[in-house]
Design brief:
This protein is an alpha+beta fold. It contains four helices and six strands. α1 crosses α2 and α2 runs antiparallel to α3.
Length: 132
């Protein structure tokens, strides 16, 4: 299980405004989504600046799931080093991301009726989120 968020996201959002925040997130998440395909990792979803992905859930990757996720996480950190916070103001620098990974059992299910969400639950999920 991979969890990440952007360091200083709240203050960054105040500084650059919502339009530029969504542009930054779109550029970042588009790059992370390309890594998802490359490493055959399953994207669970995003909420604000949080990004969650998992291995060995949608397909059997039991032989290399931990190494696969570690490679994905390392590449995600590299993507951040190339993602400008604001393309119009490069002096603001690049995205700095915190990431945590953990392995263990989860329960996966769709929850809700109006806007259903595919979600993962369990101690392994909680541990991964605390490790970021």
């Amino acid at each position: 299980i991979f969890f990440s968020d952007i360091v200083g996201f709240t203050s960054l959002s105040d500084k650059i405004g919502p339009a530029k925040v969504t542009n930054m997130l779109d550029r970042l998440y588009t790059s992370l989504d390309a890594l998802i395909q490359h490493y055959e990792v399953f994207k669970v979803g995003t909420v604000g600046d949080a990004y969650m992905a998992v291995t060995n859930l949608a397909t059997d990757q039991s032989s290399d799931h931990a190494a696969r996720m570690a490679r994905f996480a390392r590449s995600a950190m590299e993507v951040c080093k190339r993602t400008l916070i604001d393309e119009d103001s490069p002096q603001l620098g690049v995205v700095v991301m915190r990431a945590g990974i953990h392995s263990g059992p989860v329960v996966a299910n769709v929850v809700g009726r109006r806007n259903p969400r595919y979600s993962l639950f369990g101690d392994s999920v909680n541990t991964a989120s605390r490790m970021e």
